[in-house]
Each structure stands twice: as C-alpha cells, then as structure tokens.
Design goal:
Elements (H helix, E strand, L loop, with lengths): L2 E7 L5 H9 L3 E4 L2 H6 L10 E9 L6 H12 L7 E9 L5 H14 L9 E4 L7 H6 L5 H17 L8
Parallel strand pairs: 1-2, 1-3, 3-4, 4-5
Helix pairs in contact: 1-6
C-alpha cells in the first residue's frame, strides 16, 4: 500500500469523513503544515510523492493558518518538485472555497508540484455544489458524493504519472 502525505489546514467537521475515505486507499502520513514546511522530505528519485492538502475555509474566509501555509509554500521556491498534489477545500459557507483553492493550487504550482487530472475537490457549507456528482453517480446524499469525489481524487493522485510526449 502506498503512503500519502496529508497536510490539514484549519478545521472542519467533515475532515474526519475525508480521512476515513483515504484510509482504505493508502497509508496516511499526516503532518501539521508548520511541521511539514520546516523540513520538506526529499522527493523520490523516480515517480512523484503524493501530497494531499485538506483545507477548511471558515465563515470569514481564509484564516490565518491558511494564509501562513500559503506564505510557507511560496517561500519554498521550487522545493516541492517531485511531488504530485491534490487539494480538498471544505467551506463552512457558500463563499470563498474557489478563491482558497485557486490560491493554494497556484502556490503549489509555483513551488514545483505536478497535478493529476482534476486535482480539486470542493465542498461548500451546504454541499449543494456536489448535487451533480450525487445525481450522476446515483448516490444517496451529498456526504456520499463528497466521499466518492475524495476517493476518486485519492486514486488519481496515487496512480499519477506525468504525461509523456513523443
């Protein structure tokens, strides 16, 4: 079983659901953001090490912990080269999840991360944004749609290989 590095930023009650969805797919190595950025482990010589950022966005938008993590990522230069990243953003309202995801993915890209196809899972406070996934895959409720989306992202992240061109 592969190891996946999980970096939680902030807190949301749905984070436990997300973690339980990943547990069956990989061995989770969880780091608080400050501990991870203090000594970023060296990327493997071959392939890409999977990183999953699990971020919570509070009622008032991106919190200090989120902004501190962004600053730490930006300070790395290209220190995340050799990593493949996925991002999960959980919002407590309908606002700011897209903006937080955009900022985080841009910072990770500038730090050298590669991304699998569809590297983002977003859940707003009401989880209405997951209704299409719920209907498309005949799931019972938004929590199942979130679990399905997280498991799919974990699969893509763990099997990531960069595209090869002739």
């Amino acid at each position: 079983m592969q190891t996946l590095t999980l970096i939680p930023i902030g807190h949301d009650p749905r984070m436990d659901l997300v973690k339980s969805c990943i547990r069956g797919k990989a061995i989770i190595q969880e780091f608080p953001p400050d501990a991870f950025f203090e000594g970023v482990p060296a990327a493997p010589e071959t392939g890409f090490a999977p990183l999953l950022f699990l971020s919570a966005v509070a009622d008032l938008g991106m919190g200090e912990d989120f902004l501190r993590a962004l600053r730490r990522i930006r300070a790395l230069g290209d220190g995340l080269r050799g990593y493949a990243a996925g991002v999960i953003v959980l919002g407590s309202t309908e606002l700011d999840t897209k903006n937080a995801a955009r900022e985080l993915i841009f910072a990770l890209d500038m730090a050298g991360c590669a991304f699998p196809e569809r590297p983002l899972v977003e859940a707003t406070g009401s989880m209405r944004n997951l209704r299409v996934t719920q209907r498309t895959h005949a799931l019972n409720d938004p929590e199942e749609a979130l679990a399905f989306s997280v498991e799919s992202l974990a699969d893509r992240l763990l099997s990531f290989a960069p595209p090869r061109f002739a």
